[in-house]
Write a structure and sequence with these properties.
Elements (H helix, E strand, L loop, with lengths): L7 H12 L3 H18 L10 E3 L8 E3 L3 E8 L7 H4 L4 E7 L13 E4 L4 E4 L8 H18 L2 E6 L11 H12 L5 E5 L14 H16 L7 E5 L5 H14 L3 E4 L3 E2 L25 E4 L3 H14 L4 E5 L5 H10 L3 E4 L9 H8 L6
Parallel strand pairs: 3-4, 3-14, 4-7, 7-8, 8-9, 9-10, 10-13, 13-14
Antiparallel strand pairs: 1-2, 5-6, 6-12, 11-12
Bound molecules: flavin mononucleotide.
């Protein structure tokens, strides 16, 4: 059910969705629109809602100008990053990046909005220009990012199309090494449901080894930056608990809860049947779902995680549309709140969420 009332600007956004039905094109335009909004309204002051975070794994504390983070996938190319500060974000997670550039899934369209649910179906397949290109774009924005008080994290994943003689662990660690100098924090994406490959978050023995190697890499660096592991919302409470215990044992910072909901489930997280979904990206692939129907799962996930592993740090992600929800997630134990899909449905969603968020509850 819709949790906010449409304004005139939201209806304008709906008209844009109708006029430009190519959702991937609209997705590409997000950064350009952010920059246009920044240039057109230079007087727009950031909404000061700063948060300070410290972490039990001993990684360096973070100070953000806003507890809202633009979730991975929205800035796949790291264009116009500083513009997101004036949109109400305290950080942007760039990527997901892989070591080599990727075109993603071959068949278009790969993204579509599911209007009646306030949702997006996506099977882009980790398209990105490669970590070297992204890292150098971030490096070029560093001065402006510092001036505007925006942190930049990098989401990384192993390349799903490795040759048989290439080591997946080595591939991810090489990507991490290039990302490291330019990232304020790292997210490791173990849960992409739409590359057409086996999901990594089902191979827990491998992941435990990999997280150990990531942790050793971090120990060898001069700055201990936070590292969150991004998990899938379709894990059972027991598997989620095991995954979080492994993150703690590896000495990493915490988890991003969650990635998109895999359409292979056939139902929404509530158990209600999914609508008819077309194939996207590749034959027989229906990819991942994001947006409004994910919110109850996100809240439950944060509550389950806080009970299971209270010492880890959690970033809530999935279906957040209002300030009340964002504040509910923070109270349930999320350090930060990530958004993406709502940007397609609510005009200037992050700023409005900050305005709605009771100040004494940030
Ligand atoms: C078009 C699209 C592309 C995405 N790409 C990525 C990605 O590359 N890496 C990732 O970790 N998550 C990706 N996501 C998932 C989001 O980061 C987020 O976990 C999910 O959309 C739930 O949040 P939301 O309901 O606020 O959108 C993508 C989501 C969408 C809609």
């Amino acid at each position: 059910m819709k949790t906010y009332q449409d304004t005139f600007a939201d209806r304008f956004l709906a008209a844009i969705r109708e006029t430009i039905p190519a959702a991937e094109l609209r997705h590409e335009m997000l950064a350009v629109l952010a920059e246009a909004a920044r240039v057109a309204s230079p007087w727009r002051a950031p909404l000061a809602r700063s948060v300070e975070l410290s972490f039990q794994d001993g990684s360096c504390p973070m100070r953000l100008e806003s507890p809202l983070v633009l979730a991975a996938g929205a800035s796949k190319k790291a264009w116009f990053l500083p513009a997101f500060a004036s949109m109400g974000f305290g950080a942007v997670t760039v990527g997901t990046a892989t070591m080599r550039s990727r075109k993603g899934n071959p068949l278009h369209p790969r993204v579509r909005t599911v209007e009646e649910f306030g949702a997006i179906q996506n099977a882009m397949g980790l398209n990105n220009p490669g970590i070297q290109v992204l890292a150098s774009r971030i490096a070029r924005s560093r001065d402006r990012l510092a001036q505007d008080g925006l942190l930049v994290g990098i989401s990384i994943a192993e390349d799903p199309d490795l040759l048989p003689d290439e080591s997946p662990d080595r591939n991810l660690l090489d990507c991490l090494a290039v990302a490291w100098p330019e990232a304020d924090y790292i997210e490791i994406n173990l849960s992409c449901p739409n590359t057409g490959h086996e999901r990594l978050d089902r191979a827990w023995d491998r992941i435990r080894r990999l997280m150990g190697e990531v942790s050793s890499f971090r120990e060898a660096q001069t700055t201990k930056k936070p590292i969150w592991i991004k998990l899938s919302p379709d894990l059972t409470e027991e598997t989620l608990g095991q995954a979080l215990a492994s993150i703690r044992q590896a000495g990493l910072t915490g988890a991003v809860l969650f990635n998109t909901w895999p359409a292979t489930q056939g139902v929404w997280p509530s158990g209600e049947a999914l609508p008819e979904l077309p194939e996207l990206g590749r034959p027989q692939l229906r990819g991942g779902l994001s947006g409004r129907p994910l919110y109850p799962r996100t809240l439950l996930g944060i509550e389950q995680a806080r009970r299971a592993e209270p010492g880890l740090s959690y970033l809530a992600c999935g279906g957040v549309e209002t300030g009340l929800q964002a504040s509910e997630l923070r109270e349930a134990g999320a350090d930060l709140v990530q958004l993406y899909t709502v940007m397609a449905f609510r005009w200037m969603a992050a700023r409005r969420i900050l305005q709605e968020w009771p100040q004494d509850r940030i």
